[in-house]
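Review this fold:
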Amino acid sequence: MDLDHRLAFDLAPVGLVISRNRFIVDCNQRVCEMFAISHELLVGQSFQVLYPSADEYERQGARMAPILNAKGSYSDNRIMKRATGETFWCHVSGRALDRINPHAEGIWSFEDLSEQRPVKACLTGREREVAAKLLEGLTSKEIGRTLGISHRTVEIYRARLMRKYDACTTADLVHKLVSVG
C-alpha cells in the first residue's frame, strides 16, 4: 500500500510545522485551524506571529536553543496566540535537525489544550511564563533559574497570579490554572 506522506502531514490530528531559522516553511491544516489563520498567510512568517508578544518569542527562543543543542528536542506547555488575538494553552514539541545550529531547521508539533486548560485571566508575558513553570511543578528558585530572574521576582509574579485567579495558595492557583469552568 502506498502511503501519501503529504496527505498524512496535512490531515494529522496535531498541528505540524516545518521550520527554518524560526520561520514557518510549511504547516498542516490543524495548525491553520488552531491559530485561526490560512496556510497562505502563515507560510513564510516568523513564529513570532504565534506568540502573545515579541518579548516572549525572543525569550523562548533563547531558552530553547541550549536545550535543543544538548538534547536535539524540546517540549513544553505555553500560552500562544491565535490570529484573532485570543490566547490559549498549547503543548509544543520539536526536534532540531541540526543540534549544532538548533534553530536552522526543525519539525514542530502543536496541540491545543484550551478545552482542558482555558486561559481565564489577562496575563502579562512574564505571568504566562511563571504560570507555565508552576504547572510543571517547579519551585520559585527553579523557575527563577529557568527564566533568568530572581526567586523573589518569581514570588511577586506568583502573588499577582494568585490575585488574578482569586487563589489562596499555590496549590489552589495551580488547580485554577488547569481547571475547566
The helical segments are 5-10, 29-35, 39-42, 54-71, 125-135, 140-147, 151-164, 170-178. The chain has a mean pLDDT of 90.
